[in-house]
Amino acid sequence: MEQWDQARAEVWPPPEPRRQRASIVIIEHSRLLLMRRVKPEKEFFVLPGGNIKKNETPAMACVRETREETGLNVWLGGQVCVLEGNSRTEHVFVAREHRGLLRLGGPELAKLAPDNHYELVWLDAAQLRKVKLRPKALMPHCLALLEGRALPATEA
């Protein structure tokens, strides 16, 4: 008879793999580019970005997702932070340069509906302070970049 393995039983079922997301901070004329999301009785803002595909680095995903969602080509200036949420890890980069015609694209454009709205918007620091930015932990990083201050320290 097989013996009970207490150590294996404690990790069964195995934990779900953490979702990995890459996003970008794009600043132009002291304004931050955000994706405004509106669902029934819910409005929030996120940085452009999306899921990291298998065999893709966070930086590669950031460039690809930005082009898909916004139509912009970006050159990365570096990584701002890595945020750990309940179910995902978010790799946040800042754009050193961007070019192209800003337009909504990719899955966001395809999913547009009266009860599921996506919109690209530019917000200055005062406007940013008034909205629900997701994840919340991004706010101090985005404000620091907009206001030319040092980035806050992140927990390791």
From TrEMBL:
<dbReference type="GO" id="GO:0016787">
    <property type="term" value="F:hydrolase activity"/>
</dbReference>
<dbReference type="Pfam" id="PF00293">
    <property type="entry name" value="NUDIX"/>
</dbReference>
<protein>
    <recommendedName>
        <fullName>Nudix hydrolase domain-containing protein</fullName>
    </recommendedName>
</protein>
<keyword id="KW-0460">Magnesium</keyword>
<dbReference type="InterPro" id="IPR020084">
    <property type="entry name" value="NUDIX_hydrolase_CS"/>
</dbReference>
<dbReference type="InterPro" id="IPR000086">
    <property type="entry name" value="NUDIX_hydrolase_dom"/>
</dbReference>
<dbReference type="InterPro" id="IPR015797">
    <property type="entry name" value="NUDIX_hydrolase-like_dom_sf"/>
</dbReference>
<keyword id="KW-0378">Hydrolase</keyword>
<feature type="domain" description="Nudix hydrolase">
    <location>
        <begin position="17"/>
        <end position="147"/>
    </location>
</feature>
